[in-house]
Design a protein that fits this description.
41% helix; globular; alpha+beta; 18 strands; four-stranded antiparallel sheet; twelve-stranded mixed sheet; 677 residues
Amino acid sequence: MVLSKYMETGAIPEPTAQLLKQKYDLHKTSEVEVASQRTQNKTGDRVPQHPLARIQNYLDRFRDITDREDPEARELGIDAIKRLLHGKYVIKSEKISDEYIKNTLLGNEAELLGYERGQLQDEGVRTLVLGSLQEKIHSPLATYTIPDELRKELTTMVIADQTSRMDQWIDYLTSDEARHSPSSLRYWAFVEMLKMGDYDPVRAEYNKRTESTVASFPELDQQALSLVFDEVTKKYNGVSSAIVFEEVEKREKFRELLQNENFSALYAFIQEHVRSLKLPTERLVVTDGGWETFPVGSDPKALTERLSGFQTKWCIAGEGYAQGYLQHSDIIIYFSKDADNKNTIPRACIVRNKQDGTISEVRGIISNADAKQHLDDYIAPMVEDKLQTLKGGNEWLGRLKDTKTLAKLHIKSLQDQPFNREDLIFLYQIDHRIWSSGYGQDPRIEELRLKRNLEADMLVIFGTDGKPCNPRQIARSLSDIVSDPSDPNHTVAYVGSLVSGIFDRLVQAGVEHIYTSFPEGNIRTKSIEIGGKAKDQLQAELVRTGVNISSSAQYVMSTSDFTTLPEAQMLNTVRVKVSSLGLYGPLTTDRIYERAQELGLELCPAETGPNYRLQYADQPLDEYFVIGMKQITDYNDYSNIFFLTRNANCLKLSVYPAGQDIEWDPWNEFVFSLRKP
């Protein structure tokens, strides 16, 4: 096809845009027509009526959001897309059936009795487990009335799981890493992913998703996805396949799937292929080997051939991604020795931008369904040594500190050595979230926790003077709280639901550790000094201390709605996750505020955000939260609240949309103030 006639509009169609025309008649949809009209209004040029030109123009509209140079504008744009998709595709609470909840209870009981959930298909096992469960709930399971609290808990878990998995796909497909693949294929993958339910290992296929599907969205496998994109691109470019299947049956099956362009079936097939590749876990202890650099401009096949046959989960295993990376970056890979004493096993990857020498990625090969490309215990020191020799390596050395600590704990566990209080505080992420080099939480965290006795660990963590507390010092309800400090059962920690009046009692008792569930439901308290500074003084101090203030935050602070108190005073604040508030249904700003006030919390004065920013210089990397405050309108007429975060370079003060149409995710955190007595 001749593409030159479309160049005057900038909408040069990708060859794979043809796929979207064939599958969805996308060029005929209203959203494509709206995008064409917007382009004409913006540039004065009319988008050609050719279907592929119209489709490409529509896809380019997404780039206006995902490729924005302003990080804040990009982040807000992607978040807006997420919230729209959450509302449309994440299961609604009323669609989660009683049958699902009862089956969950049955599965939980099976695990408590030492069985796997799959064993419930055995009639004898099912009868035994069912009898045990019915004895506990004092009712036949078929007629059991599910308590509201249990329904809320399980519903929140399902919604949180689906939201989190969907966000993994959004974050990856809009990331710098994924820009190496055609936008048409990213669109295709995401649209089809939304139709996929859970994976059936017997049929090696994904079930179809409906509005009542409680299963999470499919696992994001970057290596499998890059190979799918690679093969489809080769097909449209008339290039032969790069994947080699030894079995004739598999070769024929793959050709059929590629011809049909059924993403769900093709992705499942390639995932099975990736799972069949070598993952040399038994040789992880062997770290002898060497680094090899694949420089900018080198042949991508030289890279993919070295990775072929290994399950790394790296997207650069696909030739298209490898070529994209090598256009601007050096790829530096550590290969350890195989059984023949040759450097063939890929263990770690460092991506270095050629233009400025900065390091953008550090990856390993340890993965599970929700966590990908983490460094293994043994290779981390080799990576640390290499980073010390590279420009920009010092920044990553700080990040690898947590990885090294986690590796020490993992080895401790393998050697059955005891954990001290410091180890447990780290493992349960009491002070900060454990940073890792890969995607998602490092799988070793869950592995280590599953081997631990949670209740016993809590006694050590909440203990003082090197001694564990006693179990009665951990209150589980409002009536359990003991305020008298002379009482041996004086409450030192609370792990339970939030109810009206709870914070008054906790403050009265001086309880330091507050959780709705341990360790995920941590509620943090902090005293902040506010007042005593005019707003121009406050802004000047933020600038002087190196805080990155977004343009929207600067505007909000300049409005008449932003005021400061004339005299300094202390404000006692509480930081709480939305999931800890016990809400059910749409998580709107108004509902969150109402629930906070029911619990004895108040909205913070507007100046809390900037003052909190100044007094929280040790904020952990990539942590973020918002200030529960009366919304202030910015120059775009958005209703905003302050947003505090820290990235690798600086502390940030920004704002976040919090209008009536905004719905929050369960893990979002709000800061409120304690109601004064």
